[in-house]
Amino acid sequence: xTTNRLEAFSDGVMAIIITIFVLEMEVPxxxxxxxxxxxxxxxxxxxxxxxxxGIYWNNHHHLWQxxxxxxxxxxxxxxxxxxxxxxxxxxxxxxxxxxxxxxxxALYGVVLLxxxxxxxxxxxxVVKNEGTESKVGKAYQKDRKTKLSMLIYTTAVAIAFFQPxxxxxxxxLLAAAWFIPDRRIEKALEN
Length: 191
Hints:
It is built from 9 helices and no strands. By secondary structure, it is an all-alpha fold. The chain has one domain. Helix 2 runs antiparallel to helix 4 and helix 5 packs antiparallel against helix 7. Belongs to the TMEM175 family.
């Protein structure tokens, strides 16, 4: 199977996730700037989550440029990733509506951690399917950035129970670290 259908399906799921984010946002009741204070936490979590979906969509797109074929295991690994990403609207809303309370911030981190784990698994399945000498195989030889991210997400989840704002800052820093598309794929495609 080619990657076209998998890409189109994944693009659709990510577009729906972003749509859910927007539909979950409340409209302020007042017409003054002060009325925005009530929805500001929800808006800030929306922005962060939108960036995360954008990061996954962008890296997902780059990955499939280097992949030539898809197996059943790759399809299931991709669905695993989409499952965790689909939980972001719930975790985003809960964290924002509860003004960055400990448990919602920890849950948000768990969802980000599991999406990172799912991304790692997807990469491993793709490499196994394509071969270690393939473009993607060479690009993913050492996936230190994903492994380090998983460790940092785990740490941020633990910190959330004591300092949830610190965990939020860690989530923002990790988003910044992944904001630029994965250069490993670009380099592999150039060769």
